[in-house]
Write a structure and sequence with these properties.
By secondary structure, this protein is an alpha+beta fold. The protein folds into three domains: 212 residues; 150 residues, GAF domain (Beta-Lactamase); 224 residues, PPM-type phosphatase domain (Phosphatase 2c, domain 1). Helix content is 54%, strand content 16%. It is built from 19 helices and 20 strands. β6 and β7 form a beta hairpin. The longest helix is centred in the middle third of the chain and has 67 residues. The radius of gyration is 49 Å and the shape is elongated. The N and C termini lie far apart (119 Å).
Length: 700
């Protein structure tokens, strides 16, 4: 016995109920109910007055006409967009149907005579011909391919056939009038003839056949199937209504015209979906496909960008060449999906090589370093990357190639900076033909970044040595204790690598029991900033030693800096001269952070008395005077303290003063260390800028 899958059999066998579905059953019930009510009204003898019926009939017919020609326009436009010959065929069917319906409307009893006297039979004849054209056309449409190559399925031939059909129908009905009308409507007895009723049932049969045939299997758009089938059901009931009326003014006749208008609208909706929505659906699908391709390409591009971003981060995060090259080696493996990588550096003469970095499983037994040097020499001579995708046949690697972990492919790129060979980067794979030209280009880019890293590291080492010497002379100890004053300092660079920044301080013991305290901040970092700092510090020392006041010393320094440095160099400086005998402080502030003077729980800020040095603004400097009381504190600092950051907040003057006011009984060293620790804690243990602090404690 053969077993039958019940689920499969139920899906494959189309019963009438499965074809109808719930939606269509509701359409049938609704239409049948309306016809029943209309026929009941007819049996009661209710007839719509001619004066009321004719405008209603004309309105419904013109609605149908508008929809018919809209179907034609939409279908024709859709064909031009999509080439759907099924839509073109339906549009031409409705062009012919609409034209004949127009003749029916103009021939209706009560309208002005049109091509002969208007009679119910004449109107019925045009109506019947229009319904025959519509039903046969929709039935035939299911057999028309959406992509027919026949020369007949183009606008010109189909429209010519439609026009010939319309002219033929008009000619026959006019020529044989009134016989053409009498055979369909018996005006004497006021009823339809058996021929008319029979033709209506034939039309119903064609519509029913079209209902069954319309499906996706016959190339109907899935979105159009439901509205088309609903329209056909309503049309069937419209034709059924036209078999039941006796008088042209019966309610059931008007209901049939209403059904026809509704069905035409549904057909327009279906054709609109097929002709207009379909191209946009196809466009949307194509867009989604392109979007997927674009997303894949963008992800690949982002992967490359992330790798180069990581390279940039590696170069900028550390000035140690070993660390940068380790990251380059790791990136080469990850980005190019290699099994291992080796970075070899050369000395300045290019004849001493050493492994600078390696990543992955390059086994010493395979002598990858020797192979890298061999191929690397070729890459350096050619100044471009070199690819070998079959190392087994070259015989350059000692390995049992029956094993999977033998090196089979290599790309080597030279690290060249300004025509100087600094080394090579090599990647290896255990697979033959693993790399291509794109991999060569990418590795060459990696090698260029590695060359820049090595050059920067070498330059930094040279510069840092010079800067270190300058720093030792600039940042001399500032611890001074006399009978009247105690001075301490703190200096911390922002990073361990940044041995020299622009912050500086100085304390000068002057004749007559005076002491000069200086703090400043030079724009920039590194060796250039160190040179400008040294220039400013020692020039200022010279001006003060010559006996100039703080304001005059700053004026002379401003002139020198403006004349001998670029416009990008400027210096903020505070210069104060403290007389230990009188306790008077004379100061000038060239745009520097205002020092704070604290005494007996109160404080004051020593604000700017002129612009920063080197800006080229020749307006001079004024001086301020302040008597420092015994036990008071004068705090000098750079913006690395006041602008210490935590997220989007800065330490600021108010927090700084509050901390300073707690240090009344503390030594100058304690004050300096406390203020530094406050800034460090506020910033989470990592200051973004250099900091310099001078704390002056006036003794009793």
């Amino acid at each position: 016995m053969t077993e039958i899958d019940m689920n499969t059999s139920q899906e494959s066998i189309k019963t009438p109920l499965s074809i109808l579905g719930n939606t269509y059953l509701w359409v049938i019930i609704g239409c049948a109910l309306l016809i029943g009510i209309s026929d009941w009204l007819k049996l009661l003898g209710y007839v719509i007055p001619t004066a009321d019926y004719l405008p209603l009939h004309t309105l419904l017919e013109f609605i149908s006409l508008v929809v018919s020609f809209a179907v034609f326009a939409v279908g024709l436009s859709g064909f031009r967009q999509t080439g759907n010959t099924k839509d073109l065929f339906i549009s031409v069917v409705f062009f012919a149907t609409g034209t004949i319906d127009l003749l029916h409307t103009l021939s209706y009893k009560g309208m002005p005579d049109f091509i002969g006297m208007n009679t119910p039979g004449k109107a019925a004849a045009y109506w019947t011909m229009a319904r025959l054209v519509s039903s046969i056309g929709l039935f035939t449409a299911s057999f028309v391919s959406t992509r027919s190559k026949s020369r007949w399925f183009s606008p010109t031939p189909l429209l010519a056939i439609a026009m010939a059909l319309v002219i033929g129908v008009c000619t026959l009905i006019t020529h044989f009038q009134p016989i053409s009308g009498d055979i369909l409507y018996d005006a004497t007895r006021g009823m339809l003839t058996p021929l008319k009723i029979g033709l209506e049932y034939l039309i119903i049969a064609f519509y029913a056949g079209a209902f069954v045939l319309i499906s996706k299997r016959r190339e109907w758009d899935q979105w159009a199937v439901r509205p088309l089938r609903s329209a056909l059901l309503i049309t069937i009931f419209a034709e059924l209504a036209f078999t039941l009326y006796g008088s042209p003014y019966d309610p059931v006749n008007l209901l049939g015209h209403l059904f026809k208008s509704v069905s035409y609208y549904l057909i327009l909706s279906a054709l609109f979906v097929s002709s207009i929505r379909a191209p946009y659906t196809q466009l949307s699908e194509a867009k989604e496909e392109l979007q997927m391709l674009y997303t894949d390409a963008r992800e690949h591009r982002k992967e490359i960008e992330r790798s180069f971003s990581r390279i940039g981060a590696a170069l900028s995060s550390s000035l140690q060449v070993e660390e940068a090259l380790e990251q380059i080696s790791e990136l080469a493996v990850d980005m190019l999906h290699a099994d291992c990588s080796i970075v070899i550096s050369l000395d300045k003469r290019g004849d001493i090589a050493q492994v600078a970095a390696r990543k992955g499983g390059c086994h010493e037994a395979h002598r990858p370093v020797d192979l890298t040097l061999k191929v690397g020499k070729e890459a350096i001579e050619q100044a471009t990357s070199v690819l070998y995708n079959d190392l087994e046949s070259m015989g350059w690697v000692e390995c049992d190639y029956t094993h999977d972990d033998c090196l089979r492919a290599v790309v080597v790129a030279p690290m060249i900076y300004e025509n100087e060979a600094l080394g090579v980067v090599a990647i290896y794979s255990h697979s033959k033909d693993a790399f291509d030209e794109g991999d060569m280009n990418l590795l060459e880019a990696f090698a260029l970044h590695a060359a820049v890293a090595m050059h920067n590291a070498i330059s930094y080492e040279r510069e840092s040595h010079i800067a270190d010497v300058l720093q030792r002379s600039i940042l001399n100890p500032a611890k001074i204790t006399t009978g009247k004053v105690d001075i301490a300092h703190v200096y911390e660079p922002a990073m361990d690598e940044a041995l020299v920044g622009g912050d500086f301080y100085d304390v000068i013991d002057l004749p007559g029991g005076r002491i000069a305290v200086i703090i400043g901040d030079v724009s920039g970092k590194g060796l250039a900033a160190a040179v400008h700092t040294a220039m400013a510090k020692y020039a200022l020392r010279a001006y003060i030693a010559e006996g100039h006041s703080p304001a005059e010393a700053l004026r002379l320094l401003d002139k020198a800096v403006s004349e001998h440095t670029g416009t990008e160099t400027f210096i903020t400086i505070f210069v104060g001269m403290f007389d230990q005998q009188t306790g008077e402080l004379v100061y000038a502030n060239a745009g520097h952070e205002p020092p704070f003077y604290c005494s007996r729980g109160a404080y004051s800020a020593l604000d700017s008395t002129g612009p920063a040095v080197g800006l080229g603004i020749d307006i001079g400097y004024t001086e301020g005077r302040l008597t420092l009381e015994p036990g008071s504190i004068l705090l000098l600092y750079t913006d690395g303290i006041s602008e210490a950051r935590k997220d989007r907040m800065i330490l600021g003057s108010e927090r700084l003063v509050n901390e300073l006011l707690t240090c009344d009984s503390t030594t100058s060293g304690g004050v300096a260390r406390h203020i530094y620790q406050t800034a460090l804690d506020f910033s989470g243990g990592k200051l973004k800028d250099d900091v310099a602090i001078l704390a002056v404690k006036v003794l009793g």
